[in-house]
Specification:
Rossmann fold
Length: 173
């Protein structure tokens, strides 16, 4: 069972309450990004999205959103930074009905192979500044490089969080 603190607010509110951003999920970011992918590619179902980076709130929402939309997703991140297990379990259950495939690997090149869209995010999120050096070491090699994005049919997306500072950026954002 996932704890989502904002759900208790929604239960007692007389108006709609949404999760725009939490430590676990970032669904509004994914809705906007999926809309961009839809505009560029003309569809979501059946596409392969490769995510390279931290298995954070953005990644968790990409995994669930991909499962819901029938988009295949391959996530590449260091083993200690994998997506949330409960989110993965729920997404796999949803994927059974939509035909989506979900893969988690520690190999960015494998994740990006045959991807229609390659997506990355910051390595050090706001509030994680004290972990900066450790994260920079852990994510070395988890960059969207020309090797990952050779094909002209591919689209690259990079999520950045405002306010953006050099301390929070991966070298590819």
């Amino acid at each position: 069972m996932l704890r989502r603190p904002w759900t208790s607010s929604a239960k007692y509110s007389g108006i709609p309450v949404i999760n725009a951003l939490s430590d676990l999920e970032h669904p509004t970011q994914i809705i906007a990004d999926f809309f961009t992918i839809l505009e560029e590619k003309g569809k979501l179902k059946g596409l392969k999205l490769a995510y390279v980076g931290d298995g954070d709130n953005v990644c968790n929402s990409l995994v669930m959103g991909s499962a819901v939309e029938g988009m295949n997703i391959s996530v590449a991140c260091p083993r200690t930074y994998h997506p949330n297990e409960s989110i993965l379990e729920q997404a796999h259950a949803v994927a059974k009905s939509t035909g989506s495939t979900i893969e988690v690997t520690d190999d960015p090149t494998k994740a990006a192979y045959d991807a229609d869209v390659i997506y990355t995010d910051v390595w050090v999120s706001m509030g994680e500044e004290a972990e900066r050096e450790r994260r920079l070491r852990a994510f070395k090699g988890y960059q969207v490089t020309p090797l990952c994005s050779k094909s002209p049919s591919r689209m690259s997306a990079s999520c950045t969080v405002s306010p953006l500072t050099e301390a929070w950026r991966s070298p590819t954002t």
